[in-house]
């Protein structure tokens, strides 16, 4: 009971602090909100690289290039699709993705990259019941030396084979690649197969067991959500 009271007090305190900071910045006209492309309001805790140093939090610095707001995670570039200041979430998409159903991220990024509370973002957020809820679906890519039947994975081999067919030096190589939306069981990974990519999406799938490759690509283009609020709550709980 005491723990719940502390968490509630911490939540209230953080909300009040943010409201005071926003109100103070607006009142003093020192930190007006910025904008970049499709993101009309960039304000605390976010800041643009060229904003005054006292504005925003440096841990949440964005860059505005070619009229597109972006940030870097693990040295990889992600475009900002939306910022929801009421839900304390930011939606991102891999900057390397193209409008092609065979275009996939080049680097993994999953909930396991955000396990440390000192990291400025989290893949969890507090729901209405004050419990942590996952913001994203994991998307896992698997590679096998042989075809896999009766698998929860969707085959993507034709995407890889387009590359090999156009490169004579690789023409004799045959790959079998697969993708799955949702959490993975150990039994899902077959012998001699390997997981080579894990990414995320916050797209609201109706049925992850009945989706097409184009839907998966569309979900990647939609992006994934990260929370900056859950990190602050975790810090409060750790330091109570």
Automatic annotation (TrEMBL):
<dbReference type="InterPro" id="IPR025287">
    <property type="entry name" value="WAK_GUB"/>
</dbReference>
<dbReference type="Pfam" id="PF13947">
    <property type="entry name" value="GUB_WAK_bind"/>
</dbReference>
<feature type="signal peptide">
    <location>
        <begin position="1"/>
        <end position="25"/>
    </location>
</feature>
<feature type="domain" description="Wall-associated receptor kinase galacturonan-binding">
    <location>
        <begin position="31"/>
        <end position="94"/>
    </location>
</feature>
<keyword id="KW-0732">Signal</keyword>
<dbReference type="GO" id="GO:0016020">
    <property type="term" value="C:membrane"/>
</dbReference>
<protein>
    <recommendedName>
        <fullName>Wall-associated receptor kinase galacturonan-binding domain-containing protein</fullName>
    </recommendedName>
</protein>
């Amino acid at each position: 009971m005491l723990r719940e009271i502390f968490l509630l007090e911490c939540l209230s305190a953080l909300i009040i602090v943010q409201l005071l900071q926003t109100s103070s910045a607006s009142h003093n006209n020192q930190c007006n909100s910025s904008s970049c492309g499709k993101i009309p309001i960039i304000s605390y805790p976010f800041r643009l690289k060229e904003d005054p140093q006292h504005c925003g939090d440096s841990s949440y610095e964005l860059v505005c290039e070619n009229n597109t707001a972006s940030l870097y995670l693990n040295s990889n570039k992600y475009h900002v699709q939306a910022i929801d200041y009421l839900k304390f979430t930011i939606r991102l998409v891999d900057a390397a993705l193209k409008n092609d159903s065979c275009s996939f991220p080049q680097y993994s990024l999953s909930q396991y990259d955000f396990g440390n509370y000192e990291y400025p973002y989290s893949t969890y957020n507090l729901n209405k019941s004050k419990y942590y809820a996952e913001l994203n679906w994991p998307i896992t890519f698997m590679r096998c030396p042989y075809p896999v039947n009766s698998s929860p994975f969707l085959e993507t081999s034709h995407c890889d084979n387009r590359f090999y067919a156009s490169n004579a030096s690789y023409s004799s190589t045959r790959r079998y690649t697969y993708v799955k939306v949702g959490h993975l069981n150990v039994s899902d990974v077959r012998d001699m197969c390997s997981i080579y990519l894990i990414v995320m999406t916050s797209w609201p799938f109706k049925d992850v067991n009945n989706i097409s490759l184009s839907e998966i690509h569309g979900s990647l283009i939609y992006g994934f959500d990260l929370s900056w609020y859950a990190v602050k709550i975790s810090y409060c709980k750790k330091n109570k």
